[in-house]
Amino acid sequence: MDKVSSLIKDRINKAKKLETMGVDLYPSGYHPDIAISEAIERFGHMDGETLEQESGPYAFAGRIISRRDFGKASFIHIRDRTGRIQAYIRKDRVSNEEFNIFKLMDIGDHIGIKGHLFRTRTGELTILTEELVFLGKSLRPLPEKWHGLTDVETRYRQRYLDLIMNDHVKEVFVLRSKIIQSIREFFVEKGFLEVETPMMQPIPGGATARPFKTFHNALGMDLYLRVAPELYLKRLVVGGLERVFEINRNFRNEGISIKHNPEFTMLEFYMAYATYEDLMVLTEELFAHLLKEIFGLMVIEYQGKAIDFEAPWPRISLFDALRDMGGINEKAFRSKEYAAEVAMESQVNLTPRDGHGTILTKLFDHLVEPQLIRPTFIIGYPIEVSPLSRRNDQNPDLTDRFELFIGGREIANAFTELNDPVDQRERFQNQVALREAGDHEALFMDEDYLRALEYGMPPTAGEGIGIDRVVMLLSDSLSIRDVILFPHMRSLETGPRDGASEEYEDR
Asked: Among 3, 93, 222, 426, which residue's beta carbon has the most beta carbons within 10 A?
């Protein structure tokens, strides 16, 4: 029997002893008087004499995360959602029954403690326990204290354990919640309406991506998990909801990497009577709002590099970036064949279906994107890779579109919307041809969306921002899995149930 199995067996035996003593291993509810962080804030500055004069006692609740036993007395640390605090448990200060229960408790168990606060000889704020209540048994041991949970695979697969053992992980997800809340506040203050659009769609649209497909039995029809909410949000603009935003999930049946998860969170917003240039200013304002609200400054560090968010941010055309930063000869802008040669020399993966614009954008992704550390707008994307964007008035081969790059990654994609139904139908037809030629990411024909455009959509600009990538940036996280609570992982071969769940079925 290995060490872990032995420890589980020992805990199961303790659990059975507790039950014979009449202890409910999983009782219903407990009402603490005070959160640990509140106690530290209110009393942490007081000396021992002042603490003795404070009214009490106070009831706390949390998980035991450390324990030191000295015969008839013990020191433990407990942690709740807000912090950790020490408790002192003496045999002569609690009932015999409570002390006997405590002797059978383990690190990882949940406990309720009532007592007065005092300071130990070392000055640590501590609860002098007068009552204790058993609140929940942990049948599995936590990872060893000094090494913690460091295995990346285990951390992602067992996020609950990761959150227990690694304080900084919880801090990332608290930060994520604050970022999303701050984004909502920003758009509501700007007069935008938050909406919800379908997650299951009869026609996936709004992005060139391979969708997940399912079947609805009652309707007798195929449905797709959405790759983007774009076409539904623009239907709302047609309907007169001139400023809308949505923060929700998208699903794309693509590879997994440190930048990609098949299920991810996006912010999309649409603004009538605006252009993509207006959205550049709005995006600068959004990030200024986020950084000032959360950090109180405009410069952060990401992966060892300082990033200054002070506006205005550089605006560079795709072609200028390819020439000046990627070292691409302008001949590649005029010749598809030459561009393809350069791409192959640069070890860029191409397919026979790739047009000139696609080849150039793949070169950009490979050569230029990693260099864009400071917030930078790249503008002037070819129409071939922008099937929903309005043509540029000066150069109809390009579109009024930008992508935002920060920290060497794409963070946002935006454009002045194509609201010409005739032009949009032609673009859809080109996408359908690509799909029929084997491109599983090409758009479908969406007749209802075209019908909506025929009723008239006002001049509009829209943008999508990857929430997960924003959180990565602001939390200094390298992998998208570090900012998604339950990232998708390759399944493991699972055998019979082990340990606690199997051995304890006879309860």
From this structure: 93
Identify any residues that bridge with 304 across adjacent strands, giving them in sequence order: none
C-alpha–C-alpha distance, residues 103 and 72, integer Å: 10
**Three-state SS for 73?**
strand
Strands (E), 122-231: 125-136, 193-194, 200-201, 213-216, 221-225
On whether the pTM is more than 0.85, the answer is yes
Q: Peptide bond before 27: cis, by omega within 30 degrees of 0?
A: no
**Mean pLDDT for the stretch of residues 385-414:** 96
- Topology of 3-142 in CATH? OB fold (Dihydrolipoamide Acetyltransferase, E2P) (2.40.50)
225 forms beta bridges with 200
Q: What are the tens digits of pLDDT across the range 117-165?
A: 999 999 999 999 999 999 999 999 998 765 567 788 888 999 999 999 9
- State the pLDDT at residue 490: 83
pLDDT of res. 495: 44
Domain ranges of the chain: 3-142, 165-325+368-482
Give the CA count within 13 Å in the CB-facing half-sphere of 152. Answer: 8
CA distance 468 to 176: 8
Interatomic CA distance for residues 94 and 105, integer angstroms: 15
- Per-residue pLDDT, 493: 61
Q: What angle do CA 375, 378, 383 make, to 5 degrees?
A: 155
Instruction: Check if 3-142 and 165-325+368-482 are the same fold.
Output: no
- Asked whether residue 244 carries a pLDDT value surpassing 60, the answer given is yes
**For 96-112, what is each residue's pLDDT tens digit?**
999 999 999 999 999 99
Single-letter residue type at 450: L
Which secondary structure element, helix H or strand E, spans residue 13, and what is its range?
A: helix 3-20
- Distance, CA of 138 to CA of 472 (rounded, Å): 32
> What mean pLDDT is predicted for residues 398-403?
98
| DSSP code at position 487 | -
Q: Tell me the fold of 165-325+368-482.
A: BirA Bifunctional Protein; domain 2 (3.30.930)
Backbone angles phi, psi at 154, to 5 degrees: -65, -40
Q: Give the whole-angstrom CA distance, residue 137 versus residue 107.
A: 10
In one-letter notation, the amino acid at residue 338 is Y
